[in-house]
């Protein structure tokens, strides 16, 4: 059907536009990659020995803190990458080009699809980089190729969920500053989970929150896939979170684009 | 819009009209922005919607260009129903908004090629159109520069060029010259005139500059507080306004006295030795005045005709002074 092929073609056009800009002006991408890298170095080398000793009997293969830390930081690379979509979408909105697209006979989905796919590609590039650095620092996953595949798949799914959510935020944010600030708490949510230290080490109230927030089951699943620790129900809960967030984000962003964000 | 209405997306009576609208209403919260707008704009003409800031001009453009839905009313654009055949409307229109919608981080040429891709032109045709438009708008030299480096006038030109890539039959221009320097404004006017003359497009223009409407538009509608308070050609609007007169200057006070005696209804000004005679400025009226002066052998030094300008129109129609000719203050981030 012509409509379908136009939808694909328009989305590719939009994707090309976003990737071209990302390559030409890599500063945002660099910032996004630098943050998890700095965290990785900071937590491993500065706090690492203290934290590693504090965590009695690390639930990982080698017993090195880097093995505990790396999955959490890799997840944060995915999170922070996905959330920059809000900024790039909001820039387009405030520049008025979104309204230009909306008056053109193009596929309604293409603008957001271009942003989301572009963002997933960028984010996965930075995730790959962070994984590479973690490996250099001594991260030693025991995963089989299938487990690697599953871990990357889960990260893509999480990125997709947060990117759609982020695209919606970009469309409703009044200005670029707001678009960059709103997702900020989400960037730090993994800290209040099992990213840096096990939730068992936290006071009861916090621990309860940490165990039920979306990032903890996803981190535990990643850890299980890479290092062979107990996954249990984490995989199902993590997947459910990703799918639910994707759906909410997708429907909300599409709807906002169609009706035009309120001024 | 009522779902029970069964008229086909193509309105039979809209063949000669580029845009027709009836009873368009829109409010944001409890603020009424448009209070029932009716429009009928003929193909190949320039229509100007004239009004001060906040009159509802942009909202009208946003509704007619499918960006937002009206709360009530119906419209046909290019013969297609605005909401039932929105995509057909979109393929016939081009919109250049108040704030140039160009991609700042792409070059002028890339911006145009992006539009060509989105209009599904093949690569060669896209490149050809981009090149033509760059030349036409005098942007060839900066084709490879990113739009962020452009001046206001250049951005507007690029913006309009992007709108033209899709070869639209109806072009919406929302305050196309607001914030431009006089020279860029003249250039933009030239471009708009050429579009109508060469391509036969229909132009829906909004402006708060009375001179601009006077210069460009075949028909002008005056919008104030969401209502159309007058519509017609510039001349028709001017004719509705009292205040047209002929001013005759005399050599001395005696001649002024004599003439004042003949033209009983005239007002005289002793200091400048002038007589102000009410007149619509038409040739027969002028001839009659000259004939009277000649037959009484009064020597007139000079004569000037004053027709009311659109500033007078605005003042008379709205009861308020015309909007200032200053640069419109940018709205808060849209």
Q: What's the structural blueprint in terms of helices and strands?
A:
The complex is a heterodimer of chains A (263) and B (334).
Chain A: H1 2-24, H2 27-46, H3 48-54, H4 65-83, H5 85-94, H6 97-102, H7 110-136, H8 145-172, H9 176-181, H10 184-188, H11 204-212, H12 215-227, H13 234-259
Chain B: E1 17-28, E2 31-42, E3 46-50, H1 57-64, E4 72-77, E5 80-81, H2 86-92, E6 93-96, H3 108-118, H4 123-136, H5 152-164, E7 170-174, H6 182-199, E8 202-207, H7 210-216, E9 219-224, E10 227-232, H8 234-239, E11 245-250, H9 253-262, E12 267-269, E13 274-278, H10 283-295, E14 300-306, H11 310-318
Parallel strand pairs in B: 3-8, 3-9, 6-7, 7-8
Antiparallel strand pairs in B: 1-2, 1-4, 4-5, 9-10, 11-13, 11-14, 12-13
Helix pairs in contact in B: 3-4, 3-5
Major sheet characteristics of chain A: none
Give the oligomeric state of the chains in this entry, treating copies of one chain as homo and distinct chains as hetero. heterodimer
CATH fold field value of the largest domain in chain B: Rossmann fold
Secondary-structure element sequence of chain A? Answer: HHHHHHHHHHHHH
How many structurally independent domains of chain B? 2
């Amino acid at each position: 059907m012509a409509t379908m092929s136009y939808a694909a073609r328009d989305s590719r056009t939009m994707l090309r536009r976003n990737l071209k800009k990302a390559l030409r002006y890599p500063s945002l991408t660099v910032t996004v990659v630098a943050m998890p890298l700095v965290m990785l170095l900071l937590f491993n080398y500065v706090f690492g020995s203290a934290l590693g000793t504090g965590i009695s009997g690390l639930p990982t293969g080698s017993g090195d803190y880097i093995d505990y830390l790396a999955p959490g930081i890799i997840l944060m690379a995915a999170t922070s990458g996905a959330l920059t979509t809000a900024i790039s979408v909001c820039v387009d909105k405030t520049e008025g080009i979104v309204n230009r697209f909306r008056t053109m006979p193009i596929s309604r989905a293409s603008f957001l699809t271009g942003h989301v796919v572009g963002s997933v590609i960028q984010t996965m590039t930075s995730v790959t980089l962070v994984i590479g650095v973690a490996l250099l620092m001594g991260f030693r996953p025991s995963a089989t190729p299938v487990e690697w595949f599953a871990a990357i798949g889960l990260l893509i799914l999480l990125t997709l969920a947060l990117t759609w959510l982020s695209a919606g935020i970009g469309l409703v944010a009044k200005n670029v500053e707001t678009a960059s600030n709103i997702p900020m708490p989400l960037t730090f949510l993994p800290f209040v989970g099992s990213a840096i230290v096990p939730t068992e080490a936290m006071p009861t109230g916090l621990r309860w929150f940490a165990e039920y927030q979306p990032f903890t089951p996803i981190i535990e699943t990643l850890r299980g896939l890479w290092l062979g620790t107990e996954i249990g129900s984490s995989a199902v809960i993590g997947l459910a979170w990703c799918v639910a967030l994707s759906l909410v984000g997708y429907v909300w962003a599409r709807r906002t684009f169609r009706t035009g964000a309120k001024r | 819009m009522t779902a029970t209405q069964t008229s086909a997306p193509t309105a039979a009576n809209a063949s000669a009209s580029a845009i027709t609208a009836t009873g368009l209403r829109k409010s944001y919260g409890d603020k009424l922005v448009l209070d029932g707008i009716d429009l009928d704009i003929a193909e190949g003409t320039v229509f100007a919607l004239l009004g001060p800031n906040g009159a509802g001009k942009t909202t009208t453009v946003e509704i007619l260009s499918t960006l937002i839905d009206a709360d009530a009313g119906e419209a046909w654009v290019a013969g297609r129903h605005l909401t039932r055949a929105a995509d057909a409307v979109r393929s016939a229109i081009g919109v250049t908004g108040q704030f140039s919608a160009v991609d700042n981080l792409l070059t002028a040429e890339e911006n145009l090629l992006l539009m060509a891709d989105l209009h599904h032109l093949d690569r060669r045709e896209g490149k050809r159109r981009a090149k033509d438009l760059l030349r036409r708008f005098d942007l060839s030299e900066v084709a490879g520069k990113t739009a962020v480096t452009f001046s206001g006038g250049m951005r507007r030109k690029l913006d309009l060029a992007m709108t033209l890539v899709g070869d639209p039959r109806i072009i919406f221009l929302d305050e196309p010259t607001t914030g431009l320097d006089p020279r860029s404004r003249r250039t933009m006017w030239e471009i708009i005139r050429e579009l109508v003359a060469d391509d036969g497009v229909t132009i829906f223009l909004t402006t708060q500059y009375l001179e601009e409407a006077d210069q460009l538009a075949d028909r002008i509608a005056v919008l104030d507080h969401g209502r159309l308070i007058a519509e017609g050609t510039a001349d028709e609007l001017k004719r509705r306004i009292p205040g047209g007169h002929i001013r005759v200057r005399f050599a001395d006070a005696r001649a002024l006295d004599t003439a004042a005696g003949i033209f009983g209804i005239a007002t005289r000004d002793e200091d400048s030795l002038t007589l102000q005679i009410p007149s619509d400025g038409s040739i027969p009226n002028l001839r009659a005045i000259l004939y009277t002066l000649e037959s009484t052998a009064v020597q007139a030094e000079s004569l000037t005709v004053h027709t009311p300008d659109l500033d007078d129109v605005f003042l008379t129609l709205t009861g308020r002074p015309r909007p200032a000719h200053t640069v419109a203050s940018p709205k808060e981030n849209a």
